[in-house]
Fold this protein.
Amino acid sequence: MIRTVARTFACFALLALSTTTLMAQQEADFMRSMGKMYVVVAVIAILFIGMVLYLYSLDRKLTKLENQISHHDEAETTH
Amino acid sequence: MKKNWWKILGPLLVLYSFGMGLLTPLKTGISDIRPQFISAGDTVKMEVTGYNSFYKAAEGQLRAWLKLDQEHALAAQAIEVKDDRHLVLHFVLPPHLPQDADQADASLLIDSPVDGAHVYPGGIRISQKKTNVAPGSGAAWNAPIEKLHEKDAITFPFRNILGETIRNTYYHVPMWFAMFLLFIGALVHSINFLRRKDLKNDRWAAALTTTGLVFGAMGLATGAMWATYTWGEPWSGDVKQNMTAIGLLIYGAYFVLRFAIEDPERKARISAVYNIFAFSTLIPLLYVIPKLTDSLHPGAGGNIAFGSEDLDNTMRLVFYPAIIGWTLIGLWASQLLYRMNTLREKLLWGH
C-alpha cells in the first residue's frame, strides 16, 4: 500500500514537472493558443492517467492476492 | 445491478461534465488592448482584440466606452471594424479627468447587439498633469451607458488570463471536493471503529483514505498544470499549494503507520486515531491558513471564490454534477479496495 501510494505521488510529481517544464520551454505558444484550451486538455489527460495508475495498482494488489490464494490451496492439498 | 445504480450514475455525470464543460462556448471578451497607457487630452487610436467576437456582423451598431466609475464614462468617437476579432476605437480624451489625481484606471466596455456587452476590466491607465483642476472639468466624462445588450445563449464567463481554462473548474476543483468527501467517510469509519471495534470499519477507512489520496494527487497535479499557464509556474510556493502538500503528506503518513504495525487490532486502533488527527489538521491547512495570508488561489486570502464572476449559474450546471460524479467514482474505487482487502483478511486470518 505505502509503496503504491509513494509511487503514485512520484509519478504525478514527475509527470507534472516534466510535462510542464517541457511545454513551458518549447511549446508555450501551443499551450497558450486557442485561449489556452490545451491546458484543459492536459488537465483531463492527467485525470485519465490518474485513473489508469489506480487501476494498475489495483491490478498488482489482485495479482498478489491471487498468488496468496494459490499458495494457500497448494498448502491445503499437500497436508 | 439494481443496488449498483450509482456506479453507472457516477461515470455518466462525469461524462456529462466532459461534454457540457468542453462544448459550451465562452462569452465574448476582450483579450488585448493597445495602448494601455494614455494621457488626458490625447486623441487615442485604441486597437482592440476580441475573443469569440463577431464584430463584422455588428458593424455600425457597435458602441464603446472608457469607464472610470459608475458616473463617469467617455464614448468612442468612431469605431472601425477590421474583422471579427479586431476593432480600432477612436477616443478624444478631455484635457482633465474628473478626479484631482495623477492618474486613474479605466475599463473598456463594448456593446454589440450580436455578442452582447463585454468589458476589459480596469486595465487602462489614464494619466494627467496635475494642475489646479477647475470644478466641473470632468463634465466631458458624462456619456450615458444605457441599453446594453445581453447575449441570449448558454455560455461560460470570459475572464482575462484564464481564457478557456475556466473549464478546469469542472476537472480540478471536483478532485478536492471528492477527496474531502472521501476523507469525511474515512473519518466516520475511523470513529465507528473506535466505538465498535469492528475491523470492517478499519478496512473502509483505509480504502476511502487511499482513494482520497489519489484524488488529492490528481488535484495537485491538475492544479500545477493550470497554474503553469495562469500563475506563471507549476509550483510558485503559494500558501494554498504548500499547505495542501503538507496536508497530503500527513495523510500519506497514515499508510506508513499502517505498514509499520503487524497486529491487525493494534494497527486498526492506532491508524483510526491517526486518521482523526490527520483530518483535523486538513481543515486548517486547506481552508483556514490560506485565508489568513495572501494567495493566488481563489477562495484564499484576498481572492474570493464562488462569486458570480467565477462561478455563474451555467457553470453550476456542470460543476455540481461533476462533484457528485467524481465522488461516486471515488466511492466505487474505494469499494473495490475494501472488497479486495476483505477477501485477503478472510484468507489470512479467517475473519
Notes: Helices of chain A lie at 2-26, 28-78.
